[in-house]
Amino acid sequence: MNDYTEPMHHHQSRLTAVHPIWPIVFLTSIATWALPVDGSMQQSTHVPPHELVDISSVEPDLTLPPLSNSPIPNAGKRFKEVLPTLNTTDIHHVVYLPTDWKPTGTYPVIVEYVGNGNYRNKYGDICTGKVTDGKLGYGISGGEKFIWVCLPFINEERTKNAITWWGNPPDYNPRPTVDYCKQAVPWICQRYGGDPNRVVLAGFSRGSIACNFIGLYDDDIAKLWCGFIACSHYDGVSNFGLPHGDRNSARQRLDRLGQRPQFICAETPAGNQSIQSTRTYLQSTGVEGKFTFQTTGFRNHNDSWILRPSPSRKLLRTWMKELVQ
To answer: Which of 23, 193, 257, 297 is the most buried (most CB within 10 A)?
Structure first.
């Protein structure tokens, strides 16, 4: 479908605003904006939903595979894993091998960071903060063609996964998380046939902020990724009281992005943590990156939206296919 956005060519640097089309709600036409290479504003018209819908009104077409206790890798299997160097700790991540996986194959990889734990809102959305409950990577891939990994945030003592933010309050030291990621990604690629040139970093909520905060923390970790998917929140829009969460620090991290594309989505088109606020922030930085913006179409702060059919998921999958090709 060509209702979402014009194709993004790799030699272009611009901000693209797009909105989903929802046949199940009343629709109204509004103007949205795109920022092309020269920085001038161009107007285009799209048809967004008049009202965001609740995920309970759309049946999921995907269910997470059960978590296996067996360490033997097989196609279509999701399992918890511990790095050999950390087998005396409680630190762990989760690996999913696609249904077409073979030991001799080579596959693109989705590395995911999950949201903060102990979260619940008025719509009944919850987040446990556990790597076993991540969903983005599975929904994006549909369980095929991609290795999917949920990596943990690590506590200060490097003994267990952090359920909220990274490290321990009030310092929230990201270094243990960064170091784990640098070790885990190459190890997983080598062990399961991941292509190190096609590793995409994705995250929801806390994990969305981590796309830049962790994924662009220093030059070494920044080299791991070919693209990013930031769902609900963005590093630098708000600092949430995190050390080095201010805009100057976020801008320094953003400088490491270069021309690698980012797919930025959120449940709200307007407001403090919205698509519009993120787009405005990125415009203020002067960074000419390859950014695609999209509302999820749902009102929920919940990564379960990706397990349901929607125009936004279809667009994300198309974007992902073009990226890894």
So the answer is: 297
